[in-house]
Amino acid sequence: MPNSCKVAVKQLQVGNFIRLPISWKDHPFLFSSFKIRQQAQIELIKNLGIEHVFVILDRSDTAVLTLEDARTKKQPIVDSNLGQLHEELSQQKADSIEAHKSLRRQLQKTEQHFDRSIAMIRSLMGKLRNRPLNAVSDAKELIHNLCEQLLTSDKLVLHLMTDTKDDAGIYFHSLNVSILSMLIAKELNWSRNEIELVGIGALFHDIGKLKVPSQILRKTSPLSSAEQNFVNQHPMMGVDLLKLADNFPSEALPIILKHHEFLDGTGTPKGLKEPQIDKLSQLVAAVNTYDNLCHSDRSRKARTPFSALGYLYKHYKTQLNPQIVSRMVKMLGIYPPGSIVELSSGQYGMVMSVNMSQLLLPRILVYDALVPKEQAPIVELAQEEMTIVRCLPPAALPEKVFKYLNPRERVSYYFGTDS
After folding, report:
1. In whole angstroms, what is the distance from residue 369 CA to residue 376 CA?
2. What is the domain-level CATH number for residue 211?
3. Residue 200, domain member (yes or no)
4. Residue 1, CA distances (Å) to 9, 33, 255, 347 in order
5. What is the spatial distance between Cα 226 and Cα 206, in angstroms, rounded to a whole number?
6. Domain end position, chosen among 20, 55, 80
7. Are 129 and 245 in a shared domain?
8. Which pLDDT value is given to residue 166?
9. How far apart, in Å, are the Cα atoms of 404 and each of 1, 21, 243, 366, 370?
């Protein structure tokens, strides 16, 4: 816990990191905790009618004045018109609140598109056996619409979506791998046809698991060698299912078959090597591995997006295409949506979205104990002059911060636009 002490307002000086002891709505500052950067802020705090504040000592650049020093220190002249400064800060706060509301509306709109896509995937996978042509036609329409948005939007934003229910995992995973694969294909300047092929291939990459008994897929203990060998055959079972639909693009079939193959021959089901694995399959294999690292299975705990990217970069050098992995790291940013971070202000936050043109400056949902959870500030680091100090595992958060930020157990992405 931060080392803090209660001090009189008259003891404050520039460089102190403080926490105000009043409701968030009763002061003009954006946060209830912040570092004092100018004398005028101290004068504004004096005008709030409070006698004491809390100073966080280990986040302060300067020591707290003693009462004796506070009495004898010559008060600096503040040139600013305090009334005007109060008004400006209040307006900035109001603008920030409105911006937060606007972002939440964007997130809500994106969530609606995401939910519709999930519902469509659930439907088309459900009818693949009985009405395969219809299922593939629906999938083509979904991928075509996503590709259209991807290629025509100027200000793409990658958003963090809400959690999934366990029984819907395959749909979320399939959409997630498809979305990220299409984004990376675009970043690699692939053609529209290649982007749509990688999108539909990724969407159906795990369709063969529909032929794997549910008791095996849901098993929490390690699989027997026979069970693991059976699961390893799901790419070939997926190809068999898709052969029922002669409108499924043949160029995308290798993705279904090879999404678990690695360049060094250590993959499954056939142990293929790099010359035998086409570039579309190499892309989906990298994204599929990343998404699996972000989610727990019977052999490992889920990694944070930040940790998963680092692990992928360090430990899959011989197995995955390094150009694709590097592009994925650059595209998601150093701190992908879903990452838990500590800010230079000393506050905790969760990365909610990344503007594809400003990867180092993500939007972050910030924890503030005095701000209601539903009004939690979502800040843009560029505007608030903050930086990210480090990334944290969710388990490292204090319990009250964990409940406030609500880190996602399953990290899912969907893109929208800045409007």
Report:
1. 9
2. 1.10.3210.10
3. yes
4. 23, 15, 49, 12
5. 19
6. 80
7. yes
8. 52
9. 17, 20, 48, 9, 11
Q: Which residue has the higher pLDDT, 418 or 257?
A: 257
Secondary structure class of 204 (helix, strand, coil): coil
The pLDDT of residue 164 is above 60:
no
Confidence of residue 1 (pLDDT cuts 50, 70, 90): very low
271: left (phi over 0), alpha (psi -120 to 50) or beta: left
Q: Answer whether the bond into residue 269 is a cis peptide, omega within 30°.
A: yes
Asked if residue 160 has pLDDT above 60, the reply is: yes
pLDDT at 283: 98
Q: How many distinct structural domains can be found in the chain?
A: 3
Say how far apart CA 235 and CA 320 lie, in whole Å.
18
With respect to residue 152, please indicate whether it lies within any of the assigned structural domains. yes
Minimal CA–CA distance to 158: which of 338, 376, 16, 306?
338
User: In this structure, is residue 195 part of a structural domain?
Assistant: yes
- Does some domain include residue 257? yes
Q: What is residue 79's predicted lDDT score, i.e. its pLDDT? A: 56
Q: Check pLDDT > 50 for residue 46.
A: yes
Each residue of 292-305: pLDDT tens digit?
998 877 666 788 88
pTM (global) more than 0.90: no
Q: How far apart are CA 53 and CA 55, in angstroms?
A: 7
Question: Hey, is 406 helix, strand or coil?
Answer: coil
Long-range contacts at 371-374 (CB < 8 A, ≥ 24 apart): 371/24, 371/31, 371/32, 373/404
Q: Check: CB of residue 293 under 8 Å from CB of residue 314.
A: no
Does pLDDT of 233 surpass 50? yes
Task: List the structure tokens of 409.
Answer: 């157990």
- Within 362-398, residue ranges assigned H as helices are 381-384
Say how many residues make up the chain: 419
The candidate with the shortest Cα–Cα distance to 290, out of 249, 324, 239, is 324
Which of residues 167 and 251 earns the better pLDDT score? 251
Backbone angles phi, psi at 239, to 5 degrees: -60, -40
- Of 30, 60, 80, which residue is a domain's last? 80
